[in-house]
Specification:
It contains 25 helices and 24 strands. The strands form 5 sheets. An 8-stranded mixed beta sheet has the order 15-14-12-10-9-8-23-24, with no helix packed on it. The model has no long low-confidence stretch (mean pLDDT 86).
């Protein structure tokens, strides 16, 4: 945007300049009032309520026994309703809904949870952009069918019917139909991870290419039926808004539909390509003033604009467009694959000529001619094998996350290069900027101790200055409870992937010098496999005796060295083990307890160590100094012995526990012990990710949350 403002200014087009100011002022005002309205609508606490909503059939998601509904209230406000099915029969009923519902729900209305870790996906922002500010945890529902009232309802019903029909198709054909034709997301699988690594994920979402192909296919079909060109144009003008709903209404789809409509109507008003793009941007910003705040909106409009300016065709155009998208991708995804610069050049014609038409034909004919669909599905599987093989080739670069201003700088420099690709000075400036940003991210002068908000579990990251050593203590993980197979909720990505791994990659780190596991409980090692798949782990350190336990060995990935550790051993010369002294079974009392000095403070990481274990540490190391204590067992009363607290006298206690956890952590008794000894505490429940950043002997604490955002979710005695 800055680049284009400068271009307009230097062109000395006063009328164009003032029009730009007016458009930007109007859009900025709309965005400001939209955000103000969201802030007023977003609750600050949980309230009991009764809500009446209209729910369209395509706004129902069923995952195990969890049903998520998106409905519209009588005042026009959209809300999410979460409901747990009691029986498999009820689950199947929700899966086969094909008409609008009138829903009355009783339960607790609460705000959508915001991101509680740095570099974590912000669910609150995502839902706000879709006009949703609050969610309802329902304890009772009353449901009755609602009549179809108009064309919009019909589009939603058709989308739901198509989604149900696609479920009978074999995988991955069914996933392609959902993604490409109606914009339904699908479960995370290996081939989708490969697609993200290669930077061609945009081809699997609704984008401008799909609209162009759909229009061309429909135009050819109608031409063969002897429909006039003018009639085809007007049919498309009517069809595209309906497809906007059927396709799911993604940002790139909104942009593509508006541009297609403007192009069809522009023939009568003699609009140029740039006029059409500009009009689509203005209309898109009126529809959603925060359109350009998301990576999808930025890439969709930027790349569609640059198609008019990038003069070279073929692979040169593909490389330049990939370079233009790179700053936004790095800011949102933190890494890229060298092959992504060329993958789009190969993949776009494959999609245009084979995959997109083949998906449509297979979907239309499968019920009567399944042999084509099965053959096409086999071809898709081979395509996936190729994608996975390419993604595993050397060339993936964990760059890290450039700050907002630096991302803008990279984009402006890239635009200057595209504007004059023969200029060596501009190429040198761009490459120098990337190199300097890369070095600043990968060779930081400060170190940090970070307590990740992993939910009900532990995960701690230790990083020394210049990234000389990077160590993770525990990975977190979900505790599993016995349920029928039908009731199990399928998690797309683990908490480690969305929290700790995401954070490490945003800091340019894709390796661990050591992964230390305190003991064998799932909330400490449950996500170990995810960590070992996504990061290069040099060794795994476990308390002595745990190295042969099946619940540990079953989660190992690859041939990483496993190092048993006991009291007195060192971990990479920066941590010392102070417990256990003898082999155990990986239980709480056997927790690997580590001590280290960072930034002038003595840290003690206790895992789930119980009170007897704390006393054993004191007996073995009576002179041990502790400034920062990670409370054992998430603040449970089974840990944090009063005598140990009085002996160590820490200046700060850190508690890692999940919100609304069923165990009541941290326990009231534990908090009273800290209060009696005047020891302040910080909890990941309240502050989200907690980080101590230091340089030399001095440091400062930094938290993701202020501490009052989620106060309504906490027990009253846990607030510091």
């Amino acid at each position: 945007m800055v680049y284009w403002l400068l271009r307009i200014k230097t062109a000395r087009q006063r009328r164009c300049w003032w029009r730009m100011i007016v458009v930007m002022t109007v859009c900025a005002s709309l965005a400001f009032f939209r955000v103000q309205r969201w802030d007023r609508l977003t609750l600050t606490a949980e309230v009991d309520c009764q809500q009446s909503l209209v729910v369209m059939p395509d706004q129902i998601r069923v995952n195990g026994n969890l049903v998520t509904l998106t409905g519209k209230c009588s005042d026009g406000q959209r809300e999410i309703v979460n409901w747990r099915c009691r029986t498999k029969k009820e689950q199947q009923w929700w899966l086969h809904i094909r008409q609008p519902l009138q829903l009355t729900a009783w339960g607790q209305l609460q705000p959508v949870t915001l991101a509680t870790n740095f570099a974590q996906f912000d669910l609150r922002t995502y839902y706000r952009e879709r006009g949703i500010c609050n969610q309802l945890r329902a304890r009772q529902l009353a449901v009755r069918p609602r009549a179809v009232l108009g064309p919009l309802d019909l589009c939603h019903c058709l989308r739901a019917w198509l989604h149900g029909y696609f479920r009978i198709l074999p995988k991955p054909l069914s996933q392609y139909c959902d993604r490409l034709l109606i914009g339904f997301s699908t479960p995370n699988e290996d081939w989708q991870q490969a697609v993200r690594q290669l930077g061609i994920i945009h081809l699997f979402c609704i984008s401008g290419m799909h609209i162009v192909l759909a229009i061309e296919l429909l135009r050819r079909l109608l031409t063969r039926l002897y429909v006039t060109k003018e009639s085809i144009d007007w049919l498309l003008v009517l069809f595209l808004p309906a497809y906007l709903i059927i396709g799911g209404g993604a940002v790139s789809l909104v942009r593509a539909v508006i541009m297609a409509e403007c192009h069809l109507l522009g023939r009568h008003f003699k609009l140029t390509g740039i006029d059409i793009w500009s009009l689509s941007l203005i209309l898109g910003l009126v529809h959603d003033p925060l359109l350009l705040m998301s990576m999808g909106g930025q890439l969709s409009y930027l790349l569609s604009l640059m198609l008019y300016y990038v003069k070279e065709g073929g692979w040169q155009q593909s490389v330049q467009l990939s370079l233009l998208s790179l700053p936004a991708i790095l800011h949102g995804a933190f890494e890229f694959h060298i092959l992504s610069l060329f993958a789009s050049y190969i993949a776009i014609p494959v999609f245009a000529v084979l995959i997109f038409p083949g998906t449509i034909i297979a979907a239309l004919t499968y019920r009567w001619w399944p042999c084509f669909g099965d053959s096409f599905n086999w071809a898709l599987l081979q395509f996936h094998h190729c994608l996975i093989a390419l993604a595993h080739l050397p060339g993936e670069i964990c760059f890290g996350r450039p700050s907002g201003p630096l991302t803008i700088l990279l984009l402006v420099l890239t635009l200057l290069v595209v504007d004059s690709p023969a200029s060596r000075k501009r190429w040198l400036a761009l490459l120098s900027a990337y190199l300097l940003i890369f070095v600043s991210i990968h060779v930081p002068l400060n170190g940090e101790i970070t307590f990740v908000d992993i939910g009900q579990g532990d995960s701690i990251i230790i990083r020394t200055p210049l990234n000389r050593k990077v160590i993770m203590i525990d990975t977190g993980g979900r505790l599993s409870f016995r349920q029928g197979r039908w009731a199990r909720v399928k998690a797309g990505r683990s908490r480690a992937e969305t929290c700790s791994i995401n954070y490490l990659k945003s800091e340019g780190i894709n390796h661990l010098d050591a992964l230390c596991l305190s003991h064998a409980d799932a909330d400490h090692i449950g996500d170990m496999s995810s960590v070992m798949r996504d990061l290069k782990v040099s060794k795994v350190v476990v308390p002595i005796g745990m190295e042969s336990l099946p619940q540990f060995t079953g989660r190992l990935v690859g041939t990483t060295e496993v190092v048993p550790c006991k009291a007195g051993d060192n971990v990479d010369r920066i941590l010392r083990a102070v417990h256990p002294a003898k082999p155990g079974q990986g239980k709480n009392e056997d927790s690997l307890t580590l001590w280290g000095i960072f930034g002038g403070n003595n840290f003690l990481f206790t895992g789930d160590l119980d009170r007897a274990g704390e006393k054993a540490v004191i007996q073995r190391y009576p002179q041990l100094s502790v400034d920062v204590l990670k409370l054992g067992h998430h603040g449970s009363k089974t840990a944090t012995d009063p005598e140990a607290i009085r002996h160590w006298q820490p200046r700060l206690a850190i508690i890692s526990a999940g919100r609304f956890n069923r165990y009541g952590h941290p326990n009231r008794e534990t908090m009273q012990i800290l209060h009696d000894d005047r020891i302040p505490s910080m909890s990941t429940q309240q502050y989200g990710m907690i980080s101590y950043q230091y340089r030399g002997e001095h440091g400062q604490w930094k938290t993701c949350l202020r501490g009052d955002e989620l106060k309504w979710m906490l027990p009253p005695y846990s607030n510091s």
